[in-house]
Amino acid sequence: MTTNSLHAVPLLVVGAGVMGVGIAQIAAQAGHAVMLYDAREGAAAEAKARLAKSLEALVTKGKFTVQDMAQTLSRIETITSLEAAATARLVVEAIVEKLDVKHGLFKQLESIVAVDCVLASNTSSISVTAIANGLRHPGRLVGMHFFNPVPLMKLVEVVSGLQTDPAVAAAIFELSRAWGKVPVHARSTPGFIVNRIARPYYAETLALLQEQAATPEVLDACLRGAGFRMGACELMDLIGHDTNFSVTSAVYEANFYDKRFTPSLVQRELVDGGFLGRKSGRGFYDYAEGSLKTVSTAGATFVPGPLPAAQVVCVHGVGLVAERLGRTLAQAGRAFARDERSDWIGLEVDGAQLRLTDGRCASQIGFDVAVFDWPLSDSVGSALAWAASSRASEDWHAAAASWLQALGFSPQRVLDAPGLVVARTLAMLINEAADAVLQGVCTTEGADAAMKLGVNYPAGPFEWLAQCKSSTVVGWLDALDVHYRGERYRVSPWLRQRDWQEAA
Known about the structure:
The protein contains 20 helices and 15 strands. By secondary structure, it is of the alpha/beta class. The protein folds into 3 domains: 11-188, NAD(P)-binding Rossmann-like Domain (Rossmann fold, 3-Layer(aba) Sandwich); 195-290 and 421-469, N-(1-d-carboxylethyl)-l-norvaline Dehydrogenase, domain 2 (Orthogonal Bundle), CATH 1.10.1040.50; 300-413, Transcription Regulator spoIIAA (2-Layer Sandwich), CATH 3.30.750. The longest helix is centred in the first third of the chain and has 18 residues, at 43-60.
């Protein structure tokens, strides 16, 4: 099979739900004759009618022409039996996420379509290897995982199982490009790329909630302040806690109960209580009209405070954060010293320390010490977590927050938890991505593209790693590992090796 052999071939889409109709739409827009089938009688015709209304709305908004709408709809034929799709050269299924149902469908299709017809599954989590097991021609089955909504989301995970023919994966990769998507190759392992690497984004917030380190409002504000479109609590409410908990549980089980993927008691309680998020009216937040409250982080309404009084101010360390601190002080006309040989980054104010987190708790470091989170965003007024040592004076508690605000941050105080909010979340996202690369699931470039396009992260994990440096991330993880004494924060061998190489 050549890599161009699937362009404009007759296509069968099985499943007329939201995903199936979206796949049918983009294929038809790309020039394919599409056959749309659903096992429920009348479902395919109903789906096409809904699509017509959606396209009409786009025409009204000027995002679609009448001619484009007519051509797209004319290329989609609804069929009432799989046997009517014997001419298909490509099948994409988007049916229920159950292995036995998917496997049974492809077994049935093998007796209908030609031997050179490619079979693709839109599964988001089921092993492609398992789906292909027992087929007469397992090499032609491949994962083609789209993201919702299909017409808008650019990412496609092209997932190869143990028996997937590399030429088939290459053909689907090129076809995805022809459809205007950005494909990434993935090996069939639990969660593939996105659903695997994304687990820590939810897990670290849930762990902080379980420790009562901060409220959902504060945690979400800090993550938004780092550039994420939504905080983890907001996002879980949007996804649905039943769905998110189910995916986490499935990844945990599929990885032989690896502690890194352990589901959260906090989320299980929400599910048990029916607090599923937006769809039930309540999750971490109450969605009744007028009830939703979040921490404002809008830079336009933020007013930095004046620099507090101090006799001696010194900027310690080197790097982007130290440069930012020095630049802000200079712009404010404050005289300060520099100590670039220091092994920590931050400000020393009359002997008290305001330090960029190295993963340790402030209380572990010393007396008049406060730690602040990794400031990913340069925006003035971005929410930033900070914590003070339990041994710090009350005066320093107040002064530390005042200094952060004067330096252009919206300080959000949290309990003295290791790694605070953003640093520990980034560390775990990077660590999981490193393990995925180590195990051949994807490349570093594939991981970055997948996380930016699949879940709208402000950067990819390896782009963050380039900003933070391996030694910093390893330090965060080692500090978390020492504090919690478990397997969850173990450093990926890939990341440890990179740290050694950079230090050489």
